[in-house]
Amino acid sequence: TCTFVNTPRTVDVAVGKTATVAEVVKGGRIDYVVTVTHAGGNVAADGTVVRDVPGTGLSACAVDSCAATGGAACPAASAALLTAGGATVPLLPMGGRVTFAVRCTVD
After folding, report:
1. What's the Rg (C-alpha) of the chain?
2. Alpha-carbon span 105 to 91, nearest angstrom
């Protein structure tokens, strides 16, 4: 006799984006932060892909930095965040957080 128990694998991944700019001026710069967190579930969310492709009105965007806490790890290619393929977060355990600092020029 063989017994098989299928336990669902769950994650609680959230992505947030914040900018602390009071005024957006054409030709000016805007800085913002993209934060990926894994708040719970029963497995790590390793391999999560996150993308933030700049929209109309933004150009010359770049990822200035990436910081990871709680056992998470930044992608090897953080700049991929700004592409259609996105950036793969290699390690995102429960309680982990990855923060990307991004800057763009306002068209």
Report:
1. 17
2. 31
**At a CB cut-off of 8 Å and minimum separation 6, what does 57 contact?**
106, 107
What is the tens place of the pLDDT at every residue in 23-73?
888 999 999 999 999 998 889 999 999 999 998 999 999 999 999 999 999
- CA gap 62, 65 in Å, rounded: 9
The pTM of this model reads 0.90
Strands 48-50 and 87-89, by their bridges, are antiparallel
SS3 91: strand
Reported as type and span, the H/E element at residue 87 is strand 87-89
In the numeric block, which tokens belong to residue 17? 């984006």
DSSP code string of 53-76: ---TTEEEEEEEEEEEETT-B--T
What H or E segment, with its residue span, contains residue 100? strand 97-106
